[in-house]
Every structure is written in structure tokens, then in C-alpha cells.
């Protein structure tokens, strides 16, 4: 079996993607799978035609791996790949759309407002932000509607901090998501489906040193502590597992996903987002959950590849 691992791309998360690609390639090789790591560039289609891989494992983060466009191209090229289909990937990638679908399914997610840069500018920044604060309240989390890794995300506790947070967000995308900030315990639940139906892996609890799980806290060893399984009651762990499975199926996802959530001081869980291309680096949450389940990352990845080939 020959698997092409797509890593890199041109998003702000390129470095993280390259690290994820290396981790996936190494894991697959350890279990006897031949792999080739390829960047998603102008030579991709010719490389696919020349090498004829049995399947593709998408380790791209940001738009190249999650907005559905590349997956649509792979479908058109009749190349099987691991992960959500193009249309469903697009739904999960757009945070306001995903949050709307989750809320309609009865899944808790913080109140939010999506604000394009054009609206922010044309209606008057000060007046718009004043209305946002009155509508949603403080504190807020400001982040791009697309993307991950905490890039462009800023917690806002005072109205005076909001303009700077908006500008930081717009540096990473044209539309900002202003979301009610919830203080509590950060958790992540990964879901895998190797052919026997979606299964939730152990809940991972995130404990950043300074309380903010930003880009530095995610990818710098020693800054954040992770607990897998999370230090929660069995009942709460079960609730989170069920919530992750419901989010996975509500968005129509397949193979793997990762639900990010927060548990407030009253013990209520709120879904923040669902990723269709979870990080696979040495400090990423899905590999931690795989290890906590006493599974081998290489065997899990190989099973997902085999499932993708069977779909073809």
C-alpha cells in the first residue's frame, strides 16, 4: 500500500502542517505502509497522476486542508482520501455555519456574531462594537471565522481592548467571530471511525500555564500540561464523548474529527468548534487521545487509510 501524505500548504498553519505530516508518515512507516510526503502546490495533480497512490492522508491545516476545495479536487481525480467529504468539510470549516447546525441539533455552543471587515468599517467601528458588547456582553473571544491553532484569537475583558483584538483577527481573515467568552476547563474529544462506526477517544484536558491556550501554548513543549483522560467524573466524560459523537454526525463527518469544548463553572459543556483535520504533532491532542486509549497511532492511521480505499 502506498499512501501520499499531504502536508504544508500556504496557510498560516504551514509549519504545524509539516510537523503533522512528518508524524503521520513516520507512524505509517512503522506499521509497514509506504508513504510519500507531498506539498499541496501546483505540481500536486501531476504528482498524483505519476505516483498513483492508493490513498491520500490529508495532514493540511487551515484552508488547504479543511475548506473542502482540495477534497473536491481529489474527488474529481478519483483519489480516495482520509477525512470528511468536500461539502461536509466546508460546513465544519465555517465556524458560524457549524455553530448554527450544532445549536439546531441541541448542542450547546456560546452565543456569537460574525462580523466581516467591510461591515465593521462601513457601519462605523465604534458604533458596531458598542452594539456587539450590549448584545453578547463581556468578556468576548474574538477569532477568525476560519482557521485554527489559536491564530488571531484574543480574549477581550474590557471594551477598550476590542478594537485591537479586531485588528489582530482581521490580519488572519476577512471575517471575525465574536463569541461569548466562557471561563472554565478546556477539553478536546477526538472521534475516529475505522469501519465499526464513530468512536470517541478519551477526553483530553488542557491546562495552559497562563490560562490561555494560544498558538505558543499549543506547540511549545513545557508550556501546557495535558491530562488524558481528563480529570473529570465518569458521568462528565461520558457526556463529553456523546457530545463529540453527536457533533461528528450532525456535521456529517467521517473517519476522524476533534471537538473542542469548554466546561464552565456550573459544569455545563459548550462546543467551540469541530476540526476535520486535527493536528498530529508531538503536542497535538488527537495523538494524545490515541495513546490514552492504548492504541498505536500508526495502526489507527493505517485503518483510516484502508477505510478510505474501501469507500472507493
How would you characterize this protein structure?
Helix 1 crosses helix 13 (297-311) and helix 4 (69-76) packs antiparallel against helix 5. Strands 9, 10, 11, 12, 13 and 14 form a six-stranded antiparallel beta sheet that branches. The protein has a four-stranded parallel beta sheet with strand order 2-1-3-4, with helices on both faces. It is α+β, with helices and mostly antiparallel strands and 312 residues long. It has 13 helices and 14 strands. A hairpin with a 4-residue loop joins strand 13 and strand 14. The chain starts with a strand and ends with a helix. The model has no long low-confidence stretch (mean pLDDT 92). Its EC number is 6.3.2.4. Cell wall formation. Belongs to the D-alanine--D-alanine ligase family. Keywords: ATP-binding, Cell shape, Cell wall biogenesis/degradation, Cytoplasm, Ligase, Nucleotide-binding, Peptidoglycan synthesis. It is an enzyme of class 6 (ligase).
Task: Name some characteristics of this structure.
14 strands; 41% helix; globular; alpha+beta; 13 helices; 312 residues
Helix/strand layout:
Blueprint: E1 2-6, H1 14-30, E2 34-38, H2 44-51, E3 55-58, H3 63-66, H4 69-76, E4 81-82, H5 86-93, H6 95-104, E5 112-116, H7 117-122, H8 125-136, E6 140-144, E7 154-156, H9 162-170, E8 175-180, E9 184-192, E10 199-200, E11 204-208, H10 215-219, E12 224-227, H11 234-250, E13 256-264, E14 269-275, H12 285-292, H13 297-311
Parallel strand pairs: 1-2, 1-3, 3-4
Antiparallel strand pairs: 5-8, 6-7, 6-8, 9-10, 9-11, 9-13, 11-12, 13-14
Amino acid at each position: 500500500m502506498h499512501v501520499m501524505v499531504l502536508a504544508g500548504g500556504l496557510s498560516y498553519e504551514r509549519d504545524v502542517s509539516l510537523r503533522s505530516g512528518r508524524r503521520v508518515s513516520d507512524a505509517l512507516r512503522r506499521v509497514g505502509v509506504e508513504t510519500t510526503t507531498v506539498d499541496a502546490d501546483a505540481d500536486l495533480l501531476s504528482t498524483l497522476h505519476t505516483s498513483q497512490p492508493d490513498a491520500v492522508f490529508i495532514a493540511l491545516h487551515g484552508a488547504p486542508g479543511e475548506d473542502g476545495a482540495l477534497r473536491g479536487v481529489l474527488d474529481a481525480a478519483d483519489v480516495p482520501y482520509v477525512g470528511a467529504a468536500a461539502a461536509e468539510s466546508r460546513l465544519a470549516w465555517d465556524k458560524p455555519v457549524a455553530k448554527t447546525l450544532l445549536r439546531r441539533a441541541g448542542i450547546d455552543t456560546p452565543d456569537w456574531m460574525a462580523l466581516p471587515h467591510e461591515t465593521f468599517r462601513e457601519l462605523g467601528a465604534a458604533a458596531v462594537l458598542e452594539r456587539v458588547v450590549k448584545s453578547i456582553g463581556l468578556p468576548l473571544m474574538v477569532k477568525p471565522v476560519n482557521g485554527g491553532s489559536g491564530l488571531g484569537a484574543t480574549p477581550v475583558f474590557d471594551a477598550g481592548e476590542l478594537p485591537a483584538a479586531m485588528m489582530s483577527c482581521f490580519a488572519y481573515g476577512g471575517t471575525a467571530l465574536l463569541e461569548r467568552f466562557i471561563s472554565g476547563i478546556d477539553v478536546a474529544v477526538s472521534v475516529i471511525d475505522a469501519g465499526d462506526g464513530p468512536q470517541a477517544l478519551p477526553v483530553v484536558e488542557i491546562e495552559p500555564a497562563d490560562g490561555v491556550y494560544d498558538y505558543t501554548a499549543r506547540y511549545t513543549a513545557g508550556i501546557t500540561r495535558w491530562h488524558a483522560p481528563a480529570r473529570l467524573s465518569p458521568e462528565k466524560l461520558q457526556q463529553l464523548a456523546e457530545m463529540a459523537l453527536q457533533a461528528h454526525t450532525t456535521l456529517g463527518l467521517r473517519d476522524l474529527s476533534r471537538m473542542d469544548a469548554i466546561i464552565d463553572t456550573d459544569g455545563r459543556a459548550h462546543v467551540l468548534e469541530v476540526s476535520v483535520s486535527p493536528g498530529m504533532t508531538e503536542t497535538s491532542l488527537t495523538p494524545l487521545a490515541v495513546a490514552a486509549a492504548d492504541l498505536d497511532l500508526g495502526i489507527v492511521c493505517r485503518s483510516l487509510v484502508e477505510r478510505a480505499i474501501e469507500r472507493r
